[in-house]
Amino acid sequence: MKAVGLYKYLDIAQPESLIDLEIEKPVPAGRDLLVKVGAISVNPVDVKVRAPKAKTELSPKVLGWDVVGIVEQTGPDCTLFKPGDEVYYAGAIDRPGGNSEYHLVDERIAGHKPASLSFAQAAALPLTTITAWEALFERLGIPLSQEENAGKTLLIIGAAGGVGSIAIQLAKYAGLTVIGTASRSESSEWAKGLGADYIISHYEPFLAQMNAVGLSHANYILCLNATVQHWEHMAEAIAPQGAICSIVETEEPLDLHLLKNKSATFTWETMFTRSLYQTPDMIKQHELLNETARLIDSGVIRTTLTDILKPINAANLRKAHAMIETGRTVGKIVLEHFE
């Protein structure tokens, strides 16, 4: 089958950084689904995994953690899907990625594709949706109740990116007032269009900007960009007994003492945790993807797709990686159709 992968970890400008491949078609076992891939999306994690390093793979490494396709075959222990079902999912970081004609995924981390969306529209959603949902409703403990969230605020740092784009919509569905950070008019307008109530700059202290629009603090903060860079401003802006969640790793320690007097909480979100450690609650990702599909099909949430590249091949994936590396993308980049 066709696939795109790498043997060497190179700068994306190098032709060998991602190459077209022919690899063996996998066979499902256990609770795995064999999915015929129709569309994929590119995320910052693809860029991080592919980034230059002194390492060579003996067998090709296939990336890709956003897939939409059709179930072709199920493993003997599957109970949630059948052949012919349309699915969407992000997959697992410790297994081959979805940049291939066929792909294996544990059914417990896959959901039924939103019926109202095309394959390309749906491919923009899985990884960012899982990340945003887990960050908001599990790590930060935000209740899914508009009544309980009345008057409460969420600050999203990096609101126009992939995770921010879905987090804004989920937060508004939950009844929160959303403050998003952005640095350009394009990203500001995108975030406002998704429902952000206020837009502030992430190049200036957050609290003063929030006070200027009548907000005294943020009950919750979701950091999607440069945790260390924004740490002191987050600590200043968080409410007493508030909570901060970040998805961005740090290269130096964080001063947690800044949160002590406020009894504020800090937590991490990594959407691969459940699949990586085979946690007993893995099926929660299946459930939240199905619930998101329901919200999409009922018009509450919309796709965050902004760019489509065709077909799925190494040249177009190199182009998508280069776009992600600029740090200026809005929404999500999707590729569809193998040729």
TrEMBL record:
- According to UniProt, the name of this protein is Zinc-type alcohol dehydrogenase-like protein
Organism ancestry = Bacteria, Bacillati, Bacillota, Bacilli, Bacillales
Task: List the InterPro entries hit by this protein, alphabetically.
Answer: ADH-like_N, ADH_Zn_typ-1, ER, GroES-like_sf, NAD(P)-bd_dom_sf, Quin_OxRdtase/zeta-crystal_CS, Zinc-ADH_QOR/CCCR
Q: What keyword terms does UniProt attach to this protein?
A: Cytoplasm, Metal-binding, NADP, Oxidoreductase, RNA-binding, Zinc
GO cellular component terms attached to this protein's record? cytoplasm
Q: Where in the cell is it found?
A: Cytoplasm
* SUPFAM superfamilies the record matches: GroES-like (SSF50129), NAD(P)-binding Rossmann-fold domains (SSF51735)
Q: What is the species listed in this Swiss-Prot or TrEMBL entry?
A: Paenibacillus apii
Q: Where is the Enoyl reductase (ER) domain?
A: 13-335
Q: Does the keyword NADP apply?
A: yes
One Pfam family, short name please? ADH_zinc_N_2
Recorded family membership: Belongs to the zinc-containing alcohol dehydrogenase family. Quinone oxidoreductase subfamily.
Select a single GO molecular function from the record's annotations and give it. Answer: RNA binding
What quaternary arrangement does the UniProt entry report?
A: Homotetramer.
